[in-house]
Design a protein that fits this description.
Blueprint lengths: L2 H4 L6 H6 L2 H15 L8 E5 L5 H8 L3 E6 L2 H10 L4 E4 L5 H4 L5 E6 L9 H14 E12 L4 H9 L13 E4 L5 E4 L4 H7 L3 E9 L9 H6 L1 H14 L11 E8 L1
Parallel strand pairs: 1-2, 1-4, 2-3, 4-5
Antiparallel strand pairs: 5-9, 6-7, 8-9
């Protein structure tokens, strides 16, 4: 993954995702799970693929010391302009172990599929680097695109797009915005458990079991009844480990071995 993929999207990213109904709904669920894992005392937190800094600002607002990083210099520029009190740095996944000292952080956090932008072999290396910069018993929490989103499969089936129904099962191309694209690799939760072999699993949660993928935002805007119904179903039935692989995203919490 390079900065070139995400730089063109930086100025539009919030409008096209963060500020959308889908983006806000999915993030609210992630924050609900994440808040339960934060210590009441100050934590040293590293966020990777921080985008425009919304999660970093939220974590900082909880009283924690946050360093938020992204490979895209333009994403970091947008984040710094929005949240000047938060520490942001340009840093790619491959730089984690060289940029930060061993045993530096209580928590490393990666939201909204940043780590889906590298293949399995790269992810194996990255998880080792994450483990190295974590303190003993430190946590890594990641939010990944799942492979078997039932809502996506249903949508493409109804639309008659048979070639796209199972597109997450192979390397595919994701639209970052109207201009940029990025290859992505999607995983099952059991595969993530194997890949992150420097860690033990704490929790696995579903995100987006009923809140749809972001490209279905126009559908959500057309009907407030549909929007409230889906979010209500998400609150009631979402978050369950058993449903994680059928959701848009998988929230997975690890502790360093």
């Amino acid at each position: 993954m390079t900065d070139a993929s995400f730089d063109p999207a930086a100025e539009r990213y919030d409008d096209q995702f963060s500020k959308t109904i889908v983006g806000k709904m999915q993030r609210s669920r992630i924050w609900r799970f994440l808040e339960k894992e934060l210590s009441p005392s100050k934590m040293d937190i590293l966020e990777i693929n921080c985008g425009t800094g919304i999660d970093a600002k939220w974590l900082s607002g909880k009283g924690h010391d946050v360093i938020a990083t992204d490979v895209s210099s333009k994403m970091i520029s947008v984040a710094q302009n929005k949240f000047p009190s938060v520490k942001f740095e340009v840093c790619g996944f491959s730089e984690i172990a060289t940029r930060f000292k061993p045993n530096s952080f209580d928590l490393v956090f990666s939201n909204f599929a940043g780590l889906n932008c590298v293949d399995e072999s790269a992810l194996i290396v990255i998880q080792k680097d994450i483990s190295e910069v974590l303190k003993p018993k430190g946590k890594f929490i990641g939010v990944f695109l799942g492979r078997e989103s039932w809502m996506e499969q249903l949508y493409f089936r109804v639309k008659g797009k048979k070639d796209l129904i199972y597109r997450r099962r192979i390397k595919s191309i994701a639209n970052i915005d109207d201009v940029s694209t990025q290859p992505v690799w999607c995983y099952l939760s059991k595969e993530l458990r194997v890949i992150f072999n420097c860690f033990s699993v704490n929790y696995i949660r579903s995100v987006g079991l009923f809140v749809p993928p972001s490209y279905l935002e126009p559908m959500m805007r057309k009907s407030k009844v549909l929007m409230h119904t889906l979010f209500g179903l998400e609150i009631i039935f979402g978050g369950r480990r058993i449903a994680a692989d059928r959701s848009d995203h998988i929230y997975i919490s690890f502790s360093k071995n």
